[in-house]
Amino acid sequence: MTLREGDGNPMASPKEATMPCPIHAVAYDAERGELVLLDQTLIPWEEKYLRLDRVDAMVEAIRALRVRGAPAIGVAAGYGLCAVARHSQASTVQQLEQELDAAAVALGVARPTAINLMHAVARMRQALTGGAANARALIAALEKAAHKLYAEELAASALMGKHAFKLFHDGDGVITHCNTGALAAPGAGTALGTVLYATRRGMKLHVYADETRPLLQGGRLTTWECLHQNIPCTLITDSMAAVVLKEGKVQIAVVGADRIAANGDTANKIGTYGLAVLCKVHRVPFYVVAPTSTVDLTLDDGRAIPIEQRSGDEVRGAFGARWAPAEVAVYSPAFDVTPAKLISGIVTERGLVRPPYRNGLRLACKK
């Protein structure tokens, strides 16, 4: 079966169960050989887990934002290849390698902006070149590589929280954009994960969540996470951010990233650039929080970051409703690029990088 649905949180691994976050957006059922995803298009109305074992269903899940967030889709691709391998009908290891290589290519181009997806697929393809003697050995190598990807992102989440802790002050209002918590990355997440880390250590923070048009990831997902994690939260429309900043309700902004160029220019969900400009005007520090798997040192600056164009129907309406004429032209980039000059600092699992960013990011990305 290509896709199965099931309610309830799948069993977490023992290591994952020790993390201070009960939300698991991506998992791997090793017994059944299935990629397990919490369908984020249904939140907050319904919590439903999807079980996938075919690459076409996985590509659809990534493109349709059933799984989203740069680190999460990278991990999903890794575990997805494991599921494809486990359910393959290939008769020889060579045929299996060819099938998996084609699946890796399809997953790698499912969304063009988030570099984590390409990094994850490249690492999984390395496991295909190990000269496995048989299918069982090849599957074992793939699962080992995917588990390592997951473990690295899980550890990065905790470390980013630790490094960002000193940026917050008790009583701060924190503005966020899109969703950057456990739904977007293993563990507690990236930007929202740093807020969780601080509040779990007794700091009193209040999140102001941009609703994030056009698909409302802030309104649907970030507020849902904050309620689950007992983090004080107020939802605002994107157009209210300027007033909230002007009124002094916010002392710091933290956002995630889908790709960071060598000079620090950062691609993130559409609307992030506008928020950064507003923070600059109102003298509110603006921080990017992302693992080094999001950094792309091959791109000199943000002008070279590919920006995904989404369907106009996502702007004309959403979730079964339409509020604009079907014939109206729509411009719908999924991301924008915030220039490095507007960013106060970039938090990775290896520490806080201050401007200028080239040397700091290069050092942070060294293994």
Describe the fold and architecture.
Mean pLDDT is 93; it is low at 1-19. The protein has two domains: 3-158, translation initiation factor eif-2b, domain 1 (Four Helix Bundle (Hemerythrin (Met), subunit A), Up-down Bundle), CATH 1.20.120; 160-364, Translation initiation factor eif-2b, domain 2 (Rossmann fold, 3-Layer(aba) Sandwich). The protein is of the alpha/beta class and 367 residues long. Helix content is 38%, strand content 17%. It has twelve helices and 17 strands. Helix 3 packs antiparallel against helix 4 (93-108), helix 3 (70-86) runs parallel beside helix 5 and helix 5 (115-127) runs antiparallel to helix 6. It starts with a strand and ends with a helix. The chain has helices at residues 14-17, 55-63, 70-86, 93-108, 115-127, 135-164, 191-199, 217-229, 241-246, 272-281, 313-316, 357-364, and strands at residues 3-7, 26-29, 34-38, 48-52, 173-176, 206-210, 233-236, 252-255, 259-261, 266-269, 286-289, 295-296, 317-318, 321-322, 335-338, 345-348, 351-353.
Could you write a compact summary of the structure shown?
The chain has helices spanning 14-17, 55-63, 70-86, 93-108, 115-127, 135-164, 191-199, 217-229, 241-246, 272-281, 313-316, 357-364; strands at 3-7, 26-29, 34-38, 48-52, 173-176, 206-210, 233-236, 252-255, 259-261, 266-269, 286-289, 295-296, 317-318, 321-322, 335-338, 345-348, 351-353. With 367 residues, the chain is α/β, with parallel strands linked by helices. The longest helix has 30 residues, at 135-164.
